[in-house]
Amino acid sequence: MSGKPRLTYVNGRGRMESVRWLLAAAGVEFEEIFLETRQQYEKLIKDGVLMFQQVPLVEIDGMKMVQTRAILSYIAGKYNLYGKDLKERALIDMYVEGITDLMQMILMFPFSPPEVKEKNIDSIKERATNRYFPVFEKVLKQHGQDFLVGNKFSWADVQLIEAILAVEEKIPTVLSGFPQLQAFKIRMSNMPTIKKFLQPGSPRKPPPDECYVETVLKIFKK
């Protein structure tokens, strides 16, 4: 095995996409193993590789890490994207948790029945524009800096740009009332490592389609 982190998940976004984003933003190359059958997943469990019988699985620094939050916080700390002290880390944690709540709605959207998809898009728009994006608009305005915490690029910035782009895929005008976030989106998208990740052919996964949903259900649903 090379020294690169190795990611094991389905060939799609899901809970691994934030890990891909964070590694890419840190300028770290990684390898991926894509699960395609339930047998592959069951073998991982049988071999004792998955602590809680769940993926994502990230092999890094000799560890087999599971649980998305633990994986992300380790990567953020390892690559100096976790603030300079405990107070900055607490802010990053709060921002990340808030963004994760919004992203949970995005993650579950592809699995919702067709008859409620429009209603779910309305719910995502309502939450984004009334609860989550106003927080970050205010932070950036009051803070007066390019980044959310201190004046340094952090895990929180990566999570936010991922969320903005994911919501925009469903609601293209969602940032219309948020000039600070519009500027933030442009800044982040032009950072060299993120710009590279946004190019065609990068490890970034496309929006979930029916094939992705079928694969997830085939592998993980009993």
Automatic annotation (TrEMBL):
Residues 85-209 form the GST C-terminal domain. Residues 3-83 form the GST N-terminal domain. GO terms for biological process: glutathione metabolic process. Its EC number is 2.5.1.18. Keywords: Transferase. It is an enzyme of class 2 (transferase). GO terms for molecular function: glutathione transferase activity. The keyword Transferase applies. PROSITE patterns: GST_CTER (PS50405), GST_NTER (PS50404). InterPro entries: Glutathione-S-Trfase_C-like, Glutathione-S-Trfase_C_sf, Glutathione_S-Trfase, Glutathione_S-Trfase_N, GST_alpha, GST_C, GST_superfamily, Thioredoxin-like_sf. The keyword Transferase applies. Gene3D superfamilies: 1.20.1050.10, Glutaredoxin. Belongs to the GST superfamily. Alpha family. This is glutathione transferase. It comes from Pluvianellus socialis (Magellanic plover). The lineage of its organism: Eukaryota, Metazoa, Chordata, Craniata, Vertebrata.
